[in-house]
Write a structure and sequence with these properties.
Number of domains: 2
Helix content: 10-25%
Largest sheet: 4 strands, antiparallel
Strand order of the largest sheet: 3-4-5-6
Shape: globular
Distance between the termini: 49 Å
Structural class: alpha+beta
Number of helices: 5
Order of helices and strands: HHHHHEEEEEEEEEEEEE
CATH topology of the largest domain: Methylamine Dehydrogenase, Chain H
Strand content: 25-35%
Amino acid sequence: MPYDELYPAGVGKAVVERTCVACHGPNFLPRRKWTEQSANAALDLMMNVSGGARERGMITPAMMSPADRQAALAYITSNFGADKPVRSTKVQEYPLDEKVLGRAMTLRDLTTHFLQDLSAGAVERKSLTSTAMGMSGSLGHTPVVDSNQNVWFTVIVGNKIGKWDRAAEKVVALYEPPTKNSYPYGVFVDKNDKLWFAEFAGCNITKFDPVSQDFTEYSPLTKPCQIRRLGMDSKGIVWFGIYSHGKLGKLDPSKAER
């Protein structure tokens, strides 16, 4: 059904869209029958009300005030409650380049990680558990490859970035950024083999030098915030998305102060 019918106008819609829908997609909520109890439990989990090992919730107070939470709860139970049918909306499909995908590598969240050989023509897929990788209970994310064919990835829950040696087929190093519970998220390798990653909860753009093992954290103008993805253009400018505020950020490393 059309998105606007599935998500009718009303108090709480904007809160639900910038938190639940922005992360889980438009079909997560309407495919479940939410009671007040189950919706509250889900919000508690995402906001880390219990104060578990994460220490920070994926939804921060800056993203959802107490009033926002009540509005979101009412919207979810009213439109996707136990008395409502399971529904969905059509999600735009993107064309896939099978030739490029044949050389792809993915690192899946949760407990299973898949590393696929990037060499031309090699399609053998290797499956490894996070425990076997020495990362029990961690969430690996966003693998990238440097000029020496080392695989680097972020560890969201675990607050580290890791290095996977493809020849040895094991994680050979884990490094922790200065900000505690920063939730390292998107990452890329620049032309000098420096790593740049977004601190989702730490609200920083961070550079890591694998040689000196030094971290440099850059703070955006908007704080507190949540940052997911970033990239560098041909002039060495870092662009990043401030997920929590719907903003596009620009960082010039040559002019920025630490």
